[in-house]
Structures are given as structure tokens and as C-alpha cells.
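Module 6 notes. Inverse folding takes a fixed backbone as the condition and produces residue identities as the prediction. Think of it as a translation problem where the source language is geometry and the target language is the twenty amino acids. Below is one complete input and output pair. Work through it position by position during the lab.
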């Protein structure tokens, strides 16, 4: 399917799931389907690279270096992650996560991209070197695939800006899915993109997820800024 048609299909499905009274279950179903298709697309590109003897990605469990960058995601993805947390974390784990999310936001509030990167703060969802919501993680996290972990260490840890070798085709291949989710959210009167830690903290606080489902605009203060 051409990129424009794919983006439009995802946008329509997203918009329908968010129209009028937002439907959490339907939104999660649509977003999970998009994520599955993104994973399948990435797997296919990695296999093609493997067949062309371009090597194997270095990303693996315990590798968290890219988990220090600023992450902007779509509202449907926030809702999916929030529901995953509520379904898989116990009460104390949720409370601790919300505390980490608020502390993280407080430390990074108002910083530009360069200053944000210099803080070297790990994503609050990263626990013991692994993503605690890995099955529900957003597209921006799914598409970041490195072929040289040493370059990642230079770039993210040693503060030596380095060109991290990646499959350039991945970004273009998954963009229609991301733009489709974002466009569908905008059509439903949501921000195009939101700051991930801020929006997730909002979703997990009080009855905000229920309020959102009833039509409250709980994520508008979380809109991503350059």
C-alpha cells in the first residue's frame, strides 16, 4: 500500500476510535494493530539486511543507552501504555512509577533539546536496564535500531557525538503509521504529539483515563514542543 494511503487508513481508524466518547478498548485495539504492523515491517527490513550480509542489530535486553532521549508520542500510544501499566503493575509499582514520572518531568521542564540530552536521565519506564512496558512501547522506541552499540555508548554516555549506524529504510517505512496515528488524534481534537512522561503521568493519575474516555481533554497541557 502506498505511504499516503497507509497513513490515511491508519488516520481513519484512529479517528473513529477516538470520536465522540473515546473508546479505550477500541483505541488500544487499533494502536496495538498498528504496532504489530510496525514490528512486522521492521522485522522484514532487518531480515533483508541480514540476507544482504549487513550484520545484526546490536540492540538487546539490558541495552538502554537510547532511553535517555526526549520522546514525543501520540495520544493513542499513551493510552495503550497506561492501560498496560494498570493491567500488569501492582498498586505500589504504579505509585512508584507515577512518582518517577513527576520527578523526571520536574527535572527536565523547560529545557531545550540540547540541555535535555545533557541531563543523561534514563526514562522512568526503564527498570534494571529493561523497558518495563516493552510490549506496548511507542513507535518512536520501536524504530530506534542500532547496528553498533559502541557508537551508542560514545554518543549517549561519553558525550562524543557519533553517527549511529541504523537501517535508514526503517524511518521511512514506519512513518505512515506514526503520521496516521498523529493525524487521527488531531482530527479527534487531540494534540498531534505529546511529551511521553508527562502524558503518561497524567493518564495514571486519579481518574484521568476515565475522564478522557468520557471526552475530557486531559492531554492538552502535554502537547509536545520543539
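Target side of the pair, the amino acids:
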Amino acid at each position: 500500500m502506498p505511504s499516503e494511503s497507509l497513513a490515511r487508513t491508519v488516520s481513519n481508524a484512529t479517528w473513529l476510535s477516538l470520536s465522540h466518547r473515546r473508546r479505550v478498548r477500541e483505541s488500544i485495539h487499533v494502536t496495538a494493530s498498528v504496532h504489530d504492523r510496525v514490528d512486522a515491517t521492521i522485522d522484514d527490513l532487518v531480515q533483508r539486511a541480514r540476507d544482504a550480509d549487513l550484520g545484526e542489530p546490536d540492540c538487546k535486553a539490558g541495552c538502554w543507552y537510547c532511553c535517555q532521549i526526549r520522546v514525543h508520542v501520540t495520544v493513542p500510544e499513551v493510552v495503550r501504555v497506561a492501560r498496560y501499566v494498570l493491567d500488569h503493575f501492582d498498586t505500589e509499582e504504579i505509585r512508584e512509577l507515577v512518582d518517577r514520572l513527576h520527578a523526571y518531568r520536574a527535572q527536565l521542564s523547560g529545557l531545550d533539546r540540547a540541555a535535555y540530552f545533557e541531563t543523561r536521565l534514563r526514562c522512568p519506564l526503564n527498570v534494571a536496564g529493561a523497558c518495563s512496558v516493552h510490549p506496548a512501547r511507542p513507535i518512536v522506541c520501536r524504530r530506534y535500531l542500532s547496528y553498533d552499540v559502541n557508537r551508542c555508548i560514545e554518543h549517549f554516555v561519553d558525550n562524543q557525538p557519533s553517527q549511529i549506524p541504523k537501517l535508514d529504510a526503517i524511518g521511512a517505512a514506519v512513518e505512515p503509521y506514526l503520521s496516521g496515528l498523529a493525524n487521527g488524534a488531531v482530527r479527534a481534537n487531540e494534540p498531534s504529539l505529546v511529551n511521553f512522561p508527562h502524558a503518561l503521568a497524567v493518564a495514571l493519575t486519579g481518574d484521568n483515563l476515565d475522564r478522557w474516555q468520557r471526552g475530557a481533554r486531559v492531554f492538552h497541557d502535554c502537547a509536545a514542543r520543539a
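Reference fact for the lab report: The chain is about 55% helix and 5% strand.
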